[in-house]
Backbone:
């Protein structure tokens, strides 16, 4: 059996506390972690119009991703806290179990996003994208189109995007790490909803973005 570096350190610490005993290390005894092979797909050179794409309209009001809630998992919290406080030496850790859960409103919203995405992909005859994709989104929030949706009730655009992405993950694309480009905007509209375009990413997307922001990295 080979020990990892972390296991060696734990043993050394325990032995030192019990009499100052040290452990001689053998290079062969320490198991080095294996380095994973990194695979990255090539940047496509095709014109965006020639590649697979899908447009989806979500006829629901955009919602931001709510923070997960952490709470004490117990049928009777008072009884649990009383029992934990009477224990000696870390009884609270042994007696109290904490749970984290996404709020029901967000879970239901993401389920709706997933169902609409699934129906659109089936209708288009597409499987979840397995390669790098670009994503373009317009969040249409109820309000006067001549105004920007910057009120606190309109939601943070990053949280709007997060809830949408989590709902589409593994349905529109195999994993959200495949999204290499993302352009989104929130606007006011008399008809709330979300307009979305997803397509395979190309070298032209890099050129256009560099031309817009004046990138100097080159491709």
Residues:
């Amino acid at each position: 059996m080979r020990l990892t570096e972390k296991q060696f350190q734990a043993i050394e610490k325990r032995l030192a506390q019990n009499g100052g005993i040290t452990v001689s290390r053998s290079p062969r005894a320490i198991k080095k972690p294996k380095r994973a092979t990194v695979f990255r797909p090539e940047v496509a050179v095709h014109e965006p119009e020639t590649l697979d794409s899908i447009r989806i309209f979500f006829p629901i009001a955009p919602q931001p991703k709510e923070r997960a809630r952490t709470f004490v998992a117990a049928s009777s919290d008072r009884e649990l806290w009383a029992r934990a406080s009477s224990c000696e030496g870390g009884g609270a850790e042994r007696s109290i179990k904490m749970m984290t859960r996404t709020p029901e409103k967000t879970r239901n919203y993401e389920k709706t996003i997933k169902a609409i995405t699934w129906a659109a992909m089936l209708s288009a005859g597409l499987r979840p994208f397995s390669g790098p994709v670009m994503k373009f989104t317009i969040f249409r929030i109820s309000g006067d189109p001549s105004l920007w949706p910057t009120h606190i009730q309109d939601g943070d655009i990053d949280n709007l995007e997060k809830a949408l992405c989590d709902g589409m993950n593994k349905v529109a694309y195999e994993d959200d790490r495949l999204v290499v480009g993302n352009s989104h905007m929130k606007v006011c509209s008399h008809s709330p909803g979300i307009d979305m375009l997803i397509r395979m990413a190309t070298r032209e997307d890099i050129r256009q973005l560099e031309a817009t922001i004046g990138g100097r990295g080159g491709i």
Q: What stands out?
A: The chain has a mean pLDDT of 81. The CA atoms of residues 14 and 41 lie 47 Å apart. The radius of gyration is 26 Å. Residues 104-124 form the longest helix (21 residues).
